[in-house]
Amino acid sequence: MKRVLVALAVVALAAPVAHAQDSAKDHFNRGVKLYNLGHFQEAIPEFEKAYDLEPAPILLFNIAQSHRQNGNKERALFFYRRYLEQEPNASKRADVEQRMKELEQAVQQENEQKHKPPTEVSPPPPGTPGTAPAAPPPTTPPVVTAGPPTPASPIPVRLGVALGPSFLSFSGPDKVSPPVLFGFQLTGSYDFLRGPSQPSELRGGVQLQYASLPYDDVSGTGHGTSSFWGALLTLDYAYRVVDPLIIGGGIGAGVVWWAGLAQGNPFTAPNAVVSGGAIPMPSFALSARADYLVTPHIFLNFTPAFLYSKTTSDGLTTSISSVYRFDLEAGAGYRF
User: Fold this and answer.
1) Average pLDDT estimate for 295-312
2) Do 206 and 80 fall within a single domain?
3) Contact indicator for 229, 256 with CB cutoff of 8 Å
């Protein structure tokens, strides 16, 4: 008898613990099942528990649907409004606004009927000979989104920062061996195709970059530092292979300036006059990238890129008609 009582106590304690471990998806699935069976009142607390664990806007829509089907028009209106506030770019916004309009009209009619004074003659009850029964108002079929709730991003913009080594080489008959540089990038882009059910992303943006180039004075008695800095317009294509990994590639075009070429640098022709001004170089880039989504908004990225820049100054040596760079940069960013 004692063993039976102990077993019952263990089961009684384990049941609430197991129930407490239910995820938002578990409550969501139970809510959808109850809704589809017509148990609208029982579906409401399941959707509310799912929203408490993971506040996805689509759950507010499902709660509104359940209240509407259960006949509670004012609560349905409340949750429809909360849904549109949380999801201003909802694809079903027009349908929700139409449904809200119908509910508001129905609530207004009910309030008018409550305050309407009684008439002297009562209308005949339904079914009386000579009168036709009133037709029921048209109903809109319920719509409940199936599948796990997925928060959506109203603004498809991303910002990122990355840094890493940059390997430099020059064109020309003479061999010049520059040191490994340290590069820095700041990027901003707009995603044209991003969506919860869209695996492809087409991004247009701007990339700001900087890299320092130290050198030894030709006299061998001093050191100097020049720099590459510029801006590129970029166009990238990315594909979501599996959540949370996205890979892709892109192109870029813009201008990179070579600044800091003081007297005695090894890159200027012997008889050239160095003004100290920056040299603009039209530039083109090819890049690959891999993004890893740590959260729906925060991501890590790795971006190998090849950059070609054409020099525009006659004061450089014959070995420097073009500049080639290979960047290996890693960083992080934020998706709005």
Assistant:
1) 90
2) no
3) yes
- Does one domain contain both 170 and 286? yes
For 324, left (φ over 0), alpha (ψ -120 to 50), or beta?
Answer: beta
Amino acid at 40: F
CA-closest candidate to residue 35, choices 3, 7, 55, 64: 64
Q: Are 171 and 317 in contact (CB under 8 A)?
A: no
The pLDDT > 90 percentage for the chain reads 29
Report CA-CA distances (Å) from 62 to 37, 73, 149: 14, 14, 10
Q: Which residues pair with 263 in a beta bridge?
A: none
Residue 330: pLDDT over 50: yes
The CB density around residue 256, as the number of other CB atoms within 10 Å, is 25
Do 47 and 27 touch, CB atoms closer than 8 A?
Answer: yes
Note the pLDDT tens digit of each residue in 177-207: 677 888 889 999 998 876 555 688 888 999 9
pTM: 0.54
Do residues 255 and 278 make contact, with C-beta atoms less than 8 angstroms apart? no
Strand ranges for the chain from DSSP E:
157-170, 181-191, 200-216, 223-242, 245-259, 279-293, 298-310, 322-335
Answer for the pair 159, 188: CB distance below 8 angstroms, yes or no.
yes
Give the type of residue at 237: Y
Query: Is residue 164 located within the same domain as residue 98?
Result: no
Alpha carbon distance 9, 99 (integer Å): 50
Please give the Cα distance from 73 to 66 (Å, whole number): 10
Residue 8 lies in a domain: no
Q: How far apart are CA 142 and CA 31, in angstroms?
A: 14
Strand segments (E) across 196-244: 200-216, 223-242
- Total structural domains within the chain: 2
Same domain, 176 and 321: yes
Percentage helix, strand, coil for the chain under 3-state DSSP, each rounded to 5:
30, 35, 35
Q: How many other CB atoms sit within 10 Å of the CB of residue 234?
A: 20
